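Researcher: Re-running this chain for the archive, since the previous output was lost when a drive failed. Same request as before.
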Amino acid sequence: MPVHARRCHLIALPSRRLVAACAALALAMVAAPTANAQPAPQAASAQEAQQRQWRMQLQTFAGSLTDDAELPAQWVAQVLGQAQYNARVKRLMTPAPGTTTTVRDWQAYRARLLTSARIESGVMFWRRHQRTLQDAELRWGVPASVIVGIIGIESSYGQNTGNIRVLDALATLAFDYPSEHPRALERADYFRRELVQFLRMARSNGLDPLQLRGSYAGAMGIPQFMPSSWMLYGQDFDGDGRVNLIDSPEDAIGSVANYLAAHGWRAGQPAYFDVALQADDAQKAALLAPSILPTFDQPGLVALGAQLLPAGQRYDGQMALIELRNGAQPAEYVIGTENFYAVTRYNQSSYYALAVLQLGEAVQQRLQQQATSVAPPANF
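Model: Regenerated structure tokens:
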């Protein structure tokens, strides 16, 4: 424990005001230069001034948490005092200058994600955790293929969970979100909330907040959960008394299933169908107006020139026409159900959702092919 923190700990009158003062002192001393440091030039660079402002905001933020009964002020000060500004995180979040739209190419996106290597990794993951996947499907109604698809897209089955310290990523974005973003203030507020949830998550699960690593946006572990999702939907599915999405595939599987169920997954229902589209421009515009939100019943789709193929004609729920652009090539279309929409609550992209679903299908098909190839003859 640092000396300045130990001194505060030994004071005999632990009032909230005193604790707050200790918290501020801890942060200030972490940020202050050492006695042997060279004097800073009188004309500090803009970057230095910006980071100094960032540190002051972080210090004020720590002081604002002193009334939170779940977060001891001294512990918060010690943790936040060791946060480091990460300029790379800010660069990765900064929109490219002069760009207002992104050229989308479904086939290129699909080819990049649904590789043979990822499918084979999915087969191994499914075999290794078959019992857990079955248990999750029974409890939450989410098929194993969908869970496997999400974990495969998010982290390649735990092989790529990110190498940026989560504390630094969240603290940087909370107090220096790129101003070029059209919703910069809103996004900064979001990351401040995530920073609080990160502190609560680490403390309640016995995890070291200084060691946790993840994506540049602060997503963590096998399912790449943000801290708030970890707190709300994380499951102790291996029964060890804590939620650990970093090292426990069982917890990750249960948490993904719980997340989808909480966001509207309907057990036993399909997620998407093929469609024969014979709509004119006005009809297509009407079909696409709700975006990915399921809005149409089957008669409504047919009236606007979207004919379900036989596999989808018995579905009686709400649906949406999903457009998948292919750069300069013609777009593709599918019909998304409420379950397709549930997958987009994990990542608000129809491209992502269809990649998840098709990866899971590809892994399941490969498993079935391998099982058939090694099965003995029927009369053996």
